[in-house]
Amino acid sequence: MFSGSIVALITPMDRDGEVDFASLRRLVDYHVAAGTSAIAAMGTTGESPTLSTAEHLEVVRAVVEYANGRLPVIGGCGSNNTRQAIRLSRAMEQMGVTAGLSVTPYYNKPSQAALVAHYSAIADATGLPQILYNVPGRTGCDLLPETVGRLAELAGIIGIKEASARLERVSQLRACCGDEFLLFSGDDDLALDFVRLGGQGVISVTANVAAAEMAELFRAALAGRTAEAQAGQQRLLALHRALFCDTNPIPVKWACAELGLIASPMPRLPLIPLAPDGQERVRAALIKAELTGRG
Fold this sequence. Notes:
By secondary structure, this protein is an alpha/beta fold. Helix content is 46%, strand content 13%. The chain has a single domain (4-225), classed as Aldolase class I (TIM Barrel), CATH 3.20.20.70. Helix 1 (21-34) packs across helix 2 and helix 6 (145-152) runs parallel beside helix 7 (168-177). One of its GO terms (molecular function) is 4-hydroxy-tetrahydrodipicolinate synthase activity. Keywords: Amino-acid biosynthesis, Cytoplasm, Diaminopimelate biosynthesis, Lyase, Lysine biosynthesis, Schiff base.
């Protein structure tokens, strides 16, 4: 269903912190033209915790409309409230979203048994295929491979975005989940190794500013063109790291504005714009990746 470079799309905002739908449309067109495999809208990089439910759904609906069938859309539908996750999943199913991206419940600190109950309830309540999202560094909750294996037996659970920065998880997940289960890296700097070990691709922050480069890198990787993929990864490695010099998506929004892809670098409070030292680091990484002067 999915493979290659999938962008974890930012949500552009104006100086007042309101969603900038004109910039959002330009971003969708940019990813279509660049060969991005799919768009994941309203995940962590999309600042989903700070948007109201109405705004959240409006952004996903707009991305589906702007994409207009030219590439698949994955909608962020995770929540630490199981009922809310079901509501979001049902709403997105009606919009024509291809799959949902469902982060582990943050702050609640559920047990592995509770995670099985949470995701089983979502799968039972909606026909929208779900991609699990494990990012323990942000949620305080680690979805273990054995638990993913149990969830992979459910018809509605089709894959996982694994952002634990632990490459051993690839073989563990494949052993627990079988060959058809989709495995995506959530760590850009490790994503090439993740694919070499058996993953299908990446759900990427870097693709926001290097869409064509990421798309080609993972086309090469999946086709077994190892030297070409490695060269692409080396070109982008400093950028992968610079985009996490502050809390995501602060640096990548600044980079998108610097390249003229969006009108404003503003995140929504409680996040604030990138500080000058961070700007210098990201600008240097953009130059090293040969991305400046474009937009």
